[in-house]
Amino acid sequence: MTTDSTPYRPSVVEARPLLSLLLQVSRSGHLGPLVCGMPLQPLEQILGPAHDRQRQTRPRRWRPRLHYWDDLEVLICHGMVIAFTIPTWGEELTLPTALTGWATSTQPSLLSRTEMLTALAAAGLTCHAEPRLVLDDDAEGIHVLNGGVDLVFLTEGGESRLSTLSKRRYDLDTNDHSPRQGRLPA
Q1: Which residues have CB under 8 Å from 67's CB, separation 6+?
Q2: From which domain of life does this come (predicted)?
């Protein structure tokens, strides 16, 4: 019987749970059971009630509204998910454990542009520049074709870091206010 005396060294992706999670979202376009087009009610059954950070002075029945679960931002319109964003610009990121499967809900979140793009390339994911995502010269937008995910990188002090990962339903007509528009088939 031969044994390999070489110690196990986890890959960069295995050592960084957030990077692994972002690659999964970039590949599939969904975060665990969270997918654009799903109704709000099943999402609340999984995650519980949202943290309401916006005071609602009058009902906005037919307008999109942001709902928050820890740092996760979910845009709801007509009672369904039309977009979600994972903000990675801070030192730490807290996401619901029910979506990530992490033992602890908080992870270090600063990822460099090089680290993220190298991981995307190693995973075989196709990306292209998307200048429509950003308004500033110190920012760069990238669209990952596989999962339909958008990445925004910000440059501060000469270093470019991942700021946000977003998934949106681009096939929705924002002028169509019918309640069934864009929902997943039952």
Answers
A1: 40, 50, 51, 52, 73, 74, 75, 76
A2: Bacteria
